[in-house]
Design a protein that fits this description.
The chain has helices at about 1-5, 20-35, 70-75, 90-95, 95-120, 155-170, 195-205, 230-240, 260-270, 295-300, 310-325; strands at about 15, 35-40, 55-60, 80-85, 125, 175-180, 185, 215, 225, 225-230, 250, 255-260, 275-280. It is α/β, with parallel strands linked by helices and about 325 residues long. It folds into two domains: about 15-185 and about 225-250, Rossmann fold; about 190-225 and about 255-290 and about 305-325, UDP-galactose 4-epimerase, domain 1. The structure holds guanosine-5'-diphosphate-alpha-D-mannose. The site of guanosine-5'-diphosphate-alpha-D-mannose (GDD) has 23 residues, from helix 4 and helix 7. Guanosine-5'-diphosphate-alpha-D-mannose (GDD) binds near residues 183, 184 and 224.
Length: about 325
């Protein structure tokens, strides 16, 4: 079964927790395009605006309410489980610290213990984050997986906990568990609490005269390593199929951009003159100054490399907001 899976030729069911979320939706569509039978486990309802695809089944599921979870998994009988559900926003994790741990940590425990109780042999991909590295001296970047985690936010700490839980359950479930550390991933459809979507939304609203031509921003001096979400989810599938159990893989571009530069790229695409205003509320209690990852290990293993240029992705994000606002 494993060999057939690696070839991607089987039609076995796969489950995606958080499959109605930003990256989740792209992943679900990618798997469905491979003719996989995709089961979405998400506490949000199925997106109604999207056409119904017979290969995709939604199960309204909250991993923090685990009764019935094992039965559901037994009915789905997945060969792969992509675990994306959880809190993804670093800034919000400061506002609800305990909630971040409950959702990210207990949610994963509930998923993996339910899987263990079914006795199914399903491989699991746990999606951690490049945020786990914390503040790494510039001369030690791009950051490799050998760098010990040093979390600086409740979100990052919850991701380290997720990795530790994955290690523990790796000895208890029948399938493999692979952990990935994606760095920033962006694209059309991302929630506007993330930087590129936040800027693009404000720009598109200013273009249409819906708000004053004033763009409210936070810490523009930070540097981040951005990858298009479509490249990222392609990496998740490759990691699931080729990843070594117990290994952790960075997935990232290896190029870092200052947020100020990202803002300027977006403003260049727009025709409107916009004033920039720094908003103190948009700053975090702690913000990592530079994050740049090395995905060398992952590229060597899988041949993965990002395909989309950042300018292309930013253009699509802005157009997506323009279209949404026009609707
Ligand atoms: N959201 C936001 N809004 N961020 C801003 C703004 C603003 O107006 N202005 C500056 N920033 C800065 C933030 O302070 C941060 O340094 C950077 O832009 C990126 O912020 P986010 O887009 O919120 O992402 P993140 O880097 O905190 O976390 C993302 O990447 C992680 C992996 O590196 C998220 O996608 C996480 O889920 C992911 O794990």
């Amino acid at each position: 079964m494993q060999n057939q899976l690696k070839d991607g030729t089987m039609n076995d069911p796969v489950a995606v927790t958080g499959g109605a979320g930003f990256a989740g939706r792209y992943l679900v569509n990618l798997l469905a395009a491979e003719n996989r039978c995709v089961h979405v486990l998400d506490r949000s309802p199925a997106p109604v605006e999207e056409p119904v695809d017979a290969r995709i089944t939604f199960h309204r599921t909250d991993l923090n309410e685990p009764s019935g979870l094992a039965d559901l998994l037994a009915r789905i009988n997945p060969v792969e489980i992509y675990h994306l559900a959880g809190i993804a926003n670093v800034k919000n994790s400061w506002d609800g610290e305990a909630h971040t741990y409950v959702v990210n940590v207990i949610g994963e425990v509930n998923l993996l213990s339910a899987l263990r109780s079914t006795g199914l042999k399903a491989d699991v991909l746990v999606v951690s984050s490049g945020e786990v590295y914390g503040q790494v001296p510039e001369e030690l970047q791009p950051i490799r997986e050998t760098r010990p985690p040093d979390p600086r936010s409740p979100y990052a700490a919850s991701k380290v906990c997720q990795e530790i839980i994955a290690r523990q359950y790796a000895r208890q479930i029948k399938g493999r568990i692979i952990v990935v550390r994606p760095f920033n991933h962006i694209g059309p459809g991302q929630h506007p609490s993330f930087v590129t979507s936040d800027f693009a939304r404000q720009i598109s609203m200013a273009e249409r005269g819906m708000i004053e031509p004033v763009l409210k921003v936070g810490n523009l001096s930070a540097y981040r390593d951005f990858t298009d979400v479509r490249d990222m989810v392609r990496g998740y599938v490759m990691a699931m199929r080729s990843g070594q159990p117990g290994q952790v893989y960075n997935i990232c571009s290896g190029t870092t951009y200052q947020i100020r530069h990202i803002l300027n790229l977006l403003l260049e695409i727009s025709s409107t003159d916009i004033e920039i205003v720094i908003e103190p509320e948009k700053f975090r209690p702690a913000d990592i100054p530079i994050l740049c990852g090395s995905s060398e290990q992952f590229r060597r293993l899988t041949g993965w490399k990002p395909g989309m240029r950042i300018e292309e992705t930013l253009g699509e994000i802005l157009n997506d907001w323009r279209n949404r606002i026009d609707c």
